[in-house]
Write a structure and sequence with these properties.
four-stranded mixed beta sheet; globular; 15 strands; 222 residues; alpha/beta; seven-stranded mixed beta sheet
């Protein structure tokens, strides 16, 4: 059994029949979606991820749209890094706005990740990602630079052009020298006109299951 499967097995215990469950993106959550189908598929699923939506539909779950859901019992997601205060950085998938909606709707928001991603302070090599309205591009690029950051518009890897979110907006990866004042920096950037959301989840995480790749064991936080 892989460490991701072990994490999924630990998370499965928290899903009960009749629940509304949020499943995010990523391979570890994908393992959980597959496992849950064998044991507690009498649930309603909400997801920000097109890939997870497709998998859940194939497996026979009832998938509902977040816009028609005012409460989620429990939600599971991944992250790039997590701190000891329940905050996380997510940068890869570019679906953080929709992920944050799910997180905010959930009574309990669980992150499923590796032990090595639990940190005392966030690594500035991981970008703070902004979803930005196209018309606000120049404004946001200017304001990120004014705060000592370097902003890069994410381009598509499988075609010529820019990467657009499911909402039709731009993704801007922002690198800063350090994250010493990340909460305040995040707050300032969120207030900019045209910024839809950021990839910093400020104390939104209620619980986490961390897997140790060396020992093959898991631990629960918070």
């Amino acid at each position: 059994m892989t460490i991701k499967q072990t994490i999924a097995q630990a998370a499965l215990k928290h899903i009960q029949p009749g629940m509304v469950v949020g499943f995010g993106g990523g391979s570890t959550v994908g393992e959980l979606v597959n496992e849950a189908a064998n044991f507690v598929n009498d649930i309603q699923v909400v997801t920000p991820s097109p890939t997870t939506r497709q998998l859940a539909t194939v497996l026979g779950y009832t998938v509902i749209d977040p816009q028609y859901c005012d409460r989620i019992d429990i939600a599971f997601d991944g992250c790039d890094q997590l701190d000891h205060h329940g905050s996380a950085l997510k940068s890869g998938g570019g679906i953080h706005t929709n992920e944050k909606i799910i997180a905010s709707l959930a009574d309990n928001y669980w992150l499923l990740t590796l032990q090595s991603r639990l940190v005392d302070s966030f690594d500035p090599k991981i970008p703070l990602v902004l979803e930005v309205l196209p018309r606000a591009l120049a404004l946001v690029m200017r304001e990120v630079a004014a705060r000592g950051g370097q902003a890069t518009v994410r381009t598509a890897t499988n075609r010529d052009g820019l990467t657009l979110t499911d909402n039709g907006n731009l993704i801007i990866d922002c690198q800063f020298p350090n994250y010493a004042q990340l909460s305040e920096l995040n707050h300032q950037l969120k207030l900019l006109a045209g910024v839809v959301e950021t990839s910093y989840f400020d104390r939104l995480v209620t619980n986490a299951i961390l897997g140790d790749e060396v020992t093959g064991t898991v631990q629960t936080l918070f």
